[in-house]
Amino acid sequence: MKTASLKELKTALDQLSHPELLTICVRLAKLKKDNKELLTYLLFEAQDEAAFIEGVKAEVETQFRQINTSTYYWMKKSIRKILRYVKAQIRYSAEAITEVELRIHFCEQLLALKPSIKKNTVLNNLYLREVAAIQKKVKGLHEDLQFDYQEDMDKLTS
Q: What is the mean pLDDT, run by run of 10 residues, along the chain of 158 residues?
C-alpha cells in the first residue's frame, strides 16, 4: 500500500463530515499509545502550556527519584527511559520554549543525581549532547528569551 502525502490526506479529511472525522480520530487513538497521548495533549493540555510543562517536570522528578543508583548500568537504562519520555512530550508540544524548559529541567535533574554522572563517559556524553541541543534551540529564540535562559545555560555549562 502506498502512503498518501500530507496534502492528499488533508484534502481527503476536509471532505469528510463531522461524524466520519470523529470515527477516524477514535480509531487512530485505539491503534497506538502515541496517538492517544498526542490526542490527549491536543484536547486537554494544549490550551495551558505552562501547566503542561509543570506536569511534565513533576513526572520527570518522580522518575528521577525512582532511579536505581546501585550501578551505572541501571542508571543509564533509567535515564535513557526518562529522556525518551521528555522527547515524546516535546514532540507533542512542538513549541521551542517548552522544549528548552523541559531539556533544562532534565539536565538539572541529571546533574543533581548521585553518584555523579561525570564519572561515567556514556552519561556525561548524553548530558553534553542535551546541553548542545539546548544551546542550539536557545539561539533560535527571541533575544529577550535568550537572555532569560542564559543564566540557566551558565549553570549547566559550568
A: 88 92 90 90 91 96 94 95 96 92 95 91 95 93 88 84
- Cell numbers linked to 85: 519520555
d(CA 52, CA 144): 23
Q: Any idea where the domains of the chain sit in the sequence?
A: 47-157
Which pLDDT score, from 0 to 100, does residue 158 have? 77
Using alpha carbons only, what angle is made at residue 130 by residues 135 and 62, rounded to the nearest 5 degrees? 125
How distant is the alpha carbon of residue 44 from its chain centre? 17
Q: Which residues contact 66 (CB under 8 A, 6 or more apart)?
A: 78
- Specify the amino acid at residue 80: R
What DSSP designation does 35 have? H
